[in-house]
Amino acid sequence: MWPSELSPTDGGQPMGGARKVITGGHVITMDPVLGDLPDGAVLVEDDRIAAVARDAREFAGADAEIVDAAGGIVLPGMIDSHRHTWMALMRGVSADESLPQFLAGTFYGTGSFLEAADLGAASTVGALEALDAGVTTIMDCNDCVNTPEHADANVDALQAAGIRAVYNYGMQAYEFPRAFASHADRLKDAARLRAERLASDDALVTMGMLFTDFGILPFGEIAEEIRLARELGVLRASHTAAATTSILLKGLRELADHGLLIPGHVHIHCPALNEQEWRLMAEHDQRVTIAPETEMQMGMGVPPFRAAIDHGLRPGVSTDIVCVGSGDLFAQMRLGLQTQRMLDNAKVHATGTMPWTIGLTTRDALEWATVNGAHTLGLQDRIGSLTAGKKADVIVVRPRMDLVRPSHMTGAVVLQSSAADVDTVLVDGEFRKKDGRLVGQDLAAVRERANAALDRIREGHAKLPKRGPEEIAGWFGAAERMASRNFSDAYADGIPA
Fold first, then answer.
1. Do 174 and 61 have their domain in common?
2. What is the 3-state secondary structure (H, E, C) of 92-126?
3. What's the pLDDT at 15?
4. Which has the closest alpha carbon to 150: 171, 108, 120?
5. Has this prediction a pTM greater than 0.90?
6. 8-18, pLDDT tens digit by residue?
7. How many CA atoms lie within 13 A of 246 on its CB side?
8. Within this chain, do residues 178 and 249 fall inside the same structural domain, yes or no?
9. Domain boundary at 328, 359, 376, which?
10. Are residues 273 and 359 in the same domain?
11. Nearest Cα to Cα of residue 343 among 291, 287, 304, 294
12. Range of the domain at 236
């Protein structure tokens, strides 16, 4: 029976705007009340999920476009809670780099010459790659805002791609020839972008701020960034404790002592947090997102899923940069889950016995990329589950090698799927991918623009000085000493009561 409040017609005329019924697939709602619906269906009206049916026959005869998900799995759009689209053109360039190598060369090197137009081309590629892989929402960390034009180019690209995004205006400074004259000028431009481009918190692209890496600037300047973000009312994020054994990117105690560890702050990576710092994270209602592939390769430390969970936090999962690994969130779920299972099992083995059960499940991993991701970005009331009233961000995963149906639906999604299996993507109720192909984009033009930009980036890299291991170690050590000095500034006027 069609629900009375969603009657398909009123006086012979369709009610509301564009309607779609996604039917024929196995629906994994990620809603704790609805659960999984093997014969369910999802009704989309305009940009919202109007209703979710346990039995698809409830929507029979609806005046709506039918989206046939037969043989597929219907899911909420996935949420990548930390991605740098500005680096999306340099695929695999850092595949064999450690964190210090990456920072000294690829990161600061690219930032020293990257022009706004080329950043825009990269952000377009990064956003479309995410959509193609079933990622409907990203926290886009643009830590290469060399000029106001760089910020605008990134926002333009996200809006044109049609992805849902929190655009994080980055405070990091580079030796760019036309960069902001001062830290104050950069803060002023962030306020300009909020007022002129991203004033609405209900738009598809909203604003956040990515703080300068903790320890790089005097403590007072970091405090200015955090206070401005609070004043602007935008999401706050930082790369935190991303270098095990190093003081760089630490500072949680200093922030807490000054009332700057504000609830909802998103901390990226976090493998180097100690027990005291994890307690601070929990006590101050902080968020954490983990990028397994980058952390494991670059020597950041062990992806801290277990530490976050054990302290009552709800970790998100993220792709970080395609300079290193996959822009496919399925791969990050899989790598993170299986690595943490291995570590948990090793603790059992150390007691002289075998693990009789598996602690973390594929459902847990799927939560990282859906409901936890929404919670991480403060968007839990809008996205993350297939729940009536939430935004219509929906994907259909249909196994490309469809020779036999899956026996464990969540397991098939997390452990056996890739971007190639994503058949359909809706964002705000609009198709972004259909029948396995991106729609609404001139992909040939995107490709031409992107490769031209990559040529210019390669030319820029060819002119950069090459640093050997000893020089990189000296550079990193100098940064650590600077961090020690900057963190001590927090107590220049004594220890807060």
1. no
2. CCCCCCCHHHHHHHHHHHHHCCCCHHHHHHHHHHH
3. 36
4. 120
5. yes
6. 333 333 333 58
7. 27
8. yes
9. 376
10. yes
11. 304
12. 78-376
